[in-house]
Design goal:
Layout (H helix, E strand, L loop, with lengths): L5 H13 L10 H10 L5 E4 L7 H10 L8 E5 L10 E4 L4 H14 L5
Parallel strand pairs: 1-2, 2-3
Helix pairs in contact: 2-3
Length: 114
């Protein structure tokens, strides 16, 4: 899970943990790339607008690396056009139920939602 807002990361952590998921988080795309390099996640959930490295750059870098190209990506954005390359986009503001539903579908179906 990648978001530059600590409060938002905390909320998302609680949402996903209550839904039964193990969560690792990062405050920007660069930190997320480092974390993914150490331990590949089953899914990346990313905000799009962040300092240091935004979601669009993160998605592009994950897709360009054969080791991470197949990781499903869920982007949270007010503008879905910013999330090119993501497997699914959820519009902000979103409900926690919708977020978990889309994430679970990506985990079940892999990248077939594209």
């Amino acid at each position: 899970m990648v978001d530059d807002e600590p409060t938002q990361r905390s909320i998302l952590r609680r949402i996903f943990e209550r839904a039964g998921h193990e969560v690792a988080d990062a405050g920007d795309g660069a930190a997320a790339l480092q974390a993914v390099g150490k331990s590949a996640p089953d899914l990346v959930v990313t905000d799009m607008m962040m300092p240091v490295m935004g979601g669009a750059d993160l998605i592009q870098r994950l897709r360009c690396d054969p080791a991470t190209a197949g990781i499903p990506i869920l982007a949270a954005s007010g503008d879905p056009h910013l999330a090119d390359g993501a497997d699914a986009v959820i519009a902000k503001p979103y409900s926690w139920r919708d977020l978990v539903e889309v994430a679970d579908a990506l985990l079940r179906e892999g990248r077939n939602l594209r």
